[in-house]
Specification:
Layout: E1 15-19, E2 26-30, H1 38-47, H2 57-60, E3 61-65, E4 87-90, E5 96-100, E6 105-108, H3 121-124, H4 136-145, E7 152-159, H5 161-169, H6 172-181, H7 183-207, E8 212-216, H8 229-249, E9 253-258, H9 266-272, E10 276-279, H10 286-293, E11 298-301, H11 314-328, E12 334-336, H12 343-367
Parallel strand pairs: 3-7, 7-8, 8-9, 9-10, 10-11, 11-12
Antiparallel strand pairs: 1-2, 4-5, 5-6
Length: 368
């Protein structure tokens, strides 16, 4: 092994603290002597041009969610709230939602509809006025107390066009019926949504030195997509691409999160200019998608084989990290997410991910 793996118990090892996503928990990880900054390495990863290691979400990124960035009434779900039972709230569009503990997320409150008829959207939907929130205070706090210019700043914009359509109409069935029966009204609504999201992009890029923006837009069940390629082409593609183009015009990379078996939409994502995909491993054969499309689009996944709530041995963690790097690392275009674990697990994962991927890319360069 070319790169050392510092032992967790070794008190002489330089350390730093990292914060788990959707949590207030902080863990210590080794502080490696990096050849370039995580930001420079990330740029190489996205460009698929000579990355030096596989970035880790815990160590290489500042991860910001727009819900946490504005001071005022509630904007969306509070992912940092450790709820032990379901609770109801309203998002900044006025959609009645219910946080479901068992799912770890929010859904439409049963029996409620903000909008009954998509053709009436202009009369009913009140788009958030961004100036109603105090965004500057949180931005100033971040820049003064948290910001590390060597790291990647990622801002999660959350709901995309399809998910917002589903939310305002009260469910997936209602959303899909609107796509089928009232395509012109849906198209107009999507264009207005794209305008709103572009306003958000302009706001956040003026307050933060953003390097990556993410939008969540689930497009399928675990069996197939919700809607057809024709609907993608005629309704979803252009307004989504307009948002992506605007993000990238500012020198910001773009990642799309989309749950479900969305394999047949990946060519459209490539044509939209998506840099990185965050798709559902249980529903999509992501290794096959990496082989098929990896020269044109990147991927973000968790560690292959890790299961939530399962305690893995150090040997198992090392094996899984190496398998993940071997599967997705070739040619760049990949970063890994670590979502949980105890102090020792996080130490072992981040250590092996950095050291093994350094060796992986060293070997790759030697083979060229």
């Amino acid at each position: 092994m070319k790169y050392p793996r510092p032992e967790y118990e070794n008190e002489s090892v330089p350390k730093r603290k990292v914060k788990l996503a959707f949590s207030n928990m902080e863990f210590e990880v080794p502080s490696f002597d990096l050849p370039v900054t995580p930001l420079e390495n990330f740029r190489r990863v996205v460009a698929r041009k000579d990355p030096l290691w596989v970035p880790g979400s815990l160590t290489d990124f500042h991860n910001l969610m727009y819900q946490d960035m504005g001071i005022g009434r509630q904007i969306s779900a509070d992912f940092n709230r450790k709820a032990t039972e379901d609770y109801d709230f309203m998002d900044w569009f006025g959609v009645p939602l219910r946080w479901c503990v068992i799912a770890g997320g929010a859904t439409n409150k049963p029996g409620t509809h903000l909008l009954e008829d998509i053709t009436e959207w202009e009369k009913v939907i009140k788009f958030p006025v961004l100036s109603d929130w105090d965004w500057q205070t949180r931005a100033d706090e971040f820049m003064k107390n948290v910001y590390d210019p060597s790291k990647v700043v990622q801002i999660d914009l959350h709901n995309g066009l399809i998910q917002r359509l589903i939310l305002v109409l009260g469910g997936y069935t209602e959303g899909m019926l609107a796509l089928s029966l009232e395509p012109e009204a849906v198209k107009d609504f999507f264009e207005r949504l794209a305008d709103h999201m572009i306003e958000m992009v302009d706001l956040f890029s003026s307050l933060y030195p953003v390097n990556l923006m993410t939008i969540h837009d689930d497009w399928g069940t675990e069996r197939d997509t919700f809607f057809s390629p024709k609907m993608m082409e005629e309704l979803v593609f252009e307004p989504t691409k307009r948002i992506v183009d605007h993000i990238k015009s500012k020198g910001i990379s773009f990642m799309l999160h989309s749950c479900g078996n969305v394999s047949r939409f990946i060519p459209y994502m490539i044509d939209m200019g998506v840099d990185l995909l965050q798709i559902q491993r249980r529903a999509v054969d992501i290794p096959a998608m990496k082989l098929k499309y990896g020269d044109r689009i990147g991927f973000n996944t968790g560690i292959e084989g890790m299961l939530p709530g399962v305690t893995h041995t150090k040997e198992d963690l090392i094996r899984m990290v190496r398998h993940t790097v071997d599967t997705y690392g070739k040619g760049g275009g990949f970063f890994a997410s670590i979502y949980g674990g105890n102090q020792r697990t996080v130490w072992d994962l981040t250590t092996e991910l950095y050291a093994y991927s350094r060796e992986f890319y060293d070997d790759d360069r030697c083979a060229q």
